[in-house]
Amino acid sequence: MFALEKWLKDSINNQEIQRLIDTIDTHAYLQQKGFKLCLITQEDFLQEGMIINQKIIHNPDYVAHFYVAMEVLEEDESAILRGFISYDKLTQLSLPNFEKDTYWLSLDYLDPEPNHLLMTCKYLDPSVITLPTNVIQEVKETVEQTIYNLSNWLEGIFEEGLQTLDELINTGVMENVRSSPRSVSEKIERFILINFQKREVTTNVILRLEIEALEAEKIGVKVKLIPLKNQRYLPSDIQLRRYSNAGKLKQQKIAKQKEYLELNPFLVRKGRQFTIEVSIDELSVTETFQV
After folding, report:
1. Could you count the other beta carbons within 10 Å of the beta carbon of residue 232?
2. Is 21 left (phi over 0), alpha (psi -120 to 50) or beta?
3. All domains of the chain, ordered by start, with CATH?
4. Which residues contact 166 (CB under 8 A, 6 or more apart)?
5. What is the mean pLDDT of each run of 10 residues along the chain (291 residues)?
6. Around Cβ 190, how many Cβ atoms within 10 Å?
7. C-alpha angle 28/31/35, rounded to 5°?
8. Residue 217's Cα: distance from chain center in Å?
């Protein structure tokens, strides 16, 4: 684990690597830029394969975006990266059973080029590989999370935590400027303050939603992410995403020294939900809305 951690740090501009220690005791886990890596170690690969626990493929608590095989040479005090495979490719294989609750994974299935793993972790987003979720935990989080009802907004009923533009101006969070003039149709906007806390560093941004009632039981939605009054730009690594009612990624924007992020306007039918996610590195905040 130490060898893989050092190699990743040295190879990807010394980016922070997180150790995930509260997992399964037969494998080590690291997380880099949202990618979860499951480390599989073996003393030698004379038989050109390895034994893996079935949990790391089938249990949502133990799955990872990538599975990395390393050969440990204790006498030489060295570790050799023998290859890796992504979750989506691993689950497509018909692996033979080895012993109780284990599979045999051949080296032939692994990508032997370490740079391919580096390129993926550096330039792609973890959302390109969909991992299964723990349904029980997901239900629990859904119960605890506020779901904002946009239909109620049209009736003048708003959930706690939402703020108006005047409230943000009065508290000094936003500049004393108005939004664009209203058209004949009624538009409603509300703001959500989002806080990211990483060690001793706090990052705050504002999520703005504007909705408009349209025909055929549809609501038009505009989503914008803006910095606070004393910040000209958003953090360069912040991302804004929209997921559909079925959890499919529909839109994604990355800041990269921008004064704001804005999703393309979209329509939502009555009875549907969508989720907005704001993330920085491995930290993320999601807000769910329904019509």
Report:
1. 8
2. alpha
3. 1-128 (3.40.1350), 147-290 (no CATH)
4. none
5. 87 76 72 89 82 88 91 87 93 87 91 91 84 61 72 90 85 59 67 82 87 87 89 86 88 85 92 91 88 90
6. 20
7. 120
8. 31
